Amino acid sequence: MKLESFVLVIGFVLVLAGTVWSDSGLMSVQVKVAQMRSTPSFLGSIVCPLAYGDRVRALGKQGDWVDVKSSNNRTGWIHQSALTEKLVVLNSGAGVSSSASNQEIALAGKGFNQDVERQYRASNARLDYARVDRMESLKISRDQMISFLDDGKVRASKGEKR
Amino acid sequence: MSLSKKPAISRALFFSALLALLFFAPSENARSLDLSDITNGIGAGLGKMAPGPVGSAIKAAVALGKSFQDITSEQEYYLGRAVAANVLAVYTPRDDERLNYYVNTLGQTLARACDRPETFGGYHFLVLDSPEINAFAAPGGLIFVTTGMIRLCKTEDALAAVLAHEISHVVEKHGLKAIKASRLTDAFAVMASEATQNYGPSQLSKLTGAFGESIADITSTMMKSGYSRGQEREADRGAVTILERVGYNPGALAQMLSEMKKQLRPGGLDFAKTHPDPLDRIEDIRPLVSGRPAPAPSAQRQRRFREALSTI
Questions:
Q1: Which of A87, B1, B194, B237 has minimal Cβ neighbours within 10 Å of its Cβ?
Q2: Closest CA to A18 of B250, B42, B23
Q3: The domain at A25-151 falls in which architecture?
């Protein structure tokens, strides 16, 4: 009897180890577009962009930055705020696993979404969403940031991250 | 050793192997997101073993969300856009390209150094044409600052302090925390009820109702009643951290606050109404900034600051 339990326990331990190994490293991109960078810094050069819902495997971590591998085998760094451990499901209409809870998945396009915005806009016609769109379109690139900091002689003191 | 143990051990080994099979089942493809992904990936190993209608439309038993923490980055984005649209219904933007470009370059660079640099749609800034001394941060990173507030700033470091304070409100999700729990209960109930992407008219109108009420909660807190003193302290603390990380003078926040103390009219409708007394805030941040050497000011930085603000 004891031997049987022992074998079972060993079996469970192996299974658990396997689960942690295979699942905990998977993360989803939770922002519209995230840039994978060559170094753990926003001033690092861009390796490639990743889109909302893309999944990456976490290889390691340094401060707030996660060393990741993308599905097309590119590796680089992404800030942890762009990632979620939940699985972002883009086409939730196709059916969703019955056992998944909201601790594990985030349904893209659910809840307050584009349709809700459309309906809200329809009943609040005075709101100037075009101006909001214009506001969102102003994006400052990494190179612009670097020269802004250099030109203004803005220098981080030693040990500060940025 | 009796023989009867052998089958027991074999059985145990068999079950272990079976379990291992379930969990080591072919790993998910990192790119394609479909049902098989979910069944392979998370917990639902049974889908692998039991042949049957796994792929048939299964109602999502998505557990009910409870609080602002269950608002996804995407939903935060739509809430923020609506709050921003409401700010623009009250204030007129200052359509000065050079000024807005400058404020965005400064603000977006600062945002890179906060604890939540990546939001769904990113951080964006817009100057409002108003003599009021004010600034607002909509959820997700749409940030507004009035010309009245900018005029108070004597240096780029001071303006950086104002923007860093607003960025920190976004980081801490203070806007989302202003939403009354009942709105979210309503919204999450609709979300849990149906798995399909497109809502029916009644569900959509329920959601839109909860959405509109959430927007009203946020805007009235942001523009009328103000955040709690604790939240303002949190935003000030975050601002000091950002300034230090980027290389601006963290003491600029205290300088800015004493300037505000001089200018704010007691009983006014702007920052005076929605924020604690500047002197109290200076007292709160004093322990965070004292004792650190301030970075050297730069003539070039001051020149570009003056140029960008030349029209206001």
A1: B1
A2: B23
A3: Roll (2.30)
